Every structure is written in C-alpha cells, then in structure tokens.
Amino acid sequence: NAGVTQTPKFRILKIGQSMTLQCAQDMNHNYMYWYRQDPGMGLKLIYYSVGAGITDKGEVPNGYNVSRSTTEDFPLRLELAAPSQTSVYFCASTPRLAGGTYEQYFGPGTRLTVT
Amino acid sequence: AQTVTQSQPEMSVQEAETVTLSCTYDTSESDYYLFWYKQPPSRQMILVIRQEAYKQQNATENRFSVNFQKAAKSFSLKISDSQLGDAAMYFCAYKVQGAQKLVFGQGTRLTINP
User: Fold this and answer.
1) Inter-chain contact B101–A31, Cβ cutoff 8 Å?
2) B55 touching A (Cβ < 8 Å)
C-alpha cells in the first residue's frame, strides 16, 4: 500500500511551458485534492474531486486544469507556466466516510520552479 | 469567509519541556472540525490530532493534546515532553461539516533545543 504518490519530486519550467503533475492513490479513496504551498504559508486548495468524472474548483484554480478519469489518478495540468506558479504542490485523498470526520492523506509534494 | 490564524510564526522549546502552539479561527458555522498537521523537513504532511466541534472533551493523542475553546474560537496544541523529532512546521486547519475544503493557517515553526 503506497498511499498517495506524486511525480515528479522536483521540476524547473520555463515561462510559457506546460506540464502535468501526476498524483495516484491506491487506497480506493473517493475524494482527491490538489493544494499549493507558497513559501512560509499554509496550503491553499486548487481543485478537488469527489469521484471519477467529477471535479470542482477550490480557492486558487486559475492557471490550472484537472481531470479524474479513474478513482486512482488525479493529474494537475499547468498550461502556460508563470513565475507566480512557483510553489510546492501537494496531492491528498480521503475516503468517503459517514459523519464527516476524516483525515486527508497527503503525498510527498512536488517542488515546481518557473523561471 | 472562514479564516485560520496562527499568531506565532516561530516557537522554540527545550527538549523534554512542554510547549503550546496557538490557533484561532473565524466561522459562523456550528458543525466543523479542527486539525493540527505536522510538516517536518521532508515536507510530508502528517495529521497530529483532530477535534470535532460538537465534542466538549479535548482530544488527546499520546503527548499531544488540544485546548478547544469553542466560544473563543481557539484551538491550541500542547506538546508535552518535547522530543527532537517534534521539530517541524505545525499547521492548524479547519473544515466545515459537509464541505470539501480544508482551510489552513500560516503555520508555526517549532524548534526543539537539545
């Protein structure tokens, strides 16, 4: 059971390039999330998904796109990288539990630098 | 809008002593959850402790306990018998019942002095 995995761990992009950050979980969790963490700050929600085929915007969705074709995978796409997207990106997942008390399981993060 | 505030950017404590990290939040909701996450240098986010707002009893997990003051909208984390491995960034987070979003505070960097 690998939990939540993210690739790559590090990436440097030039302005205007595009890339996809990969996220996968093997816990059969329904809910998945993408966060970004800017230096010295907490995490902010970019996009989330409550199941395959369903995605929704979080606090800071501009400049990003997501898809959820399977329960396991939730890739994050940057189409035209900008310096403001320099950040550490975390993927997380959680099971669908009655009661609402749940833990979000986080991946190890991807450090992205746009220059 | 819900906000979470951690007013202590940095804290330090001697090994084996006790330290308390502060967190306040702003909400008009009555059903919600509060969390403390630890982020060591490895960057991995690790859940330390959680509290349901409807529970009056403070949550405890081994050396970690919280002081939940619902009326004051305060949720502090107490670490007893501090260990070197406790050194990390600590984030307070809030979630409304039924909502998907976790709202994080800015974090407190905890240093443990040997």
Assistant:
1) no
2) no
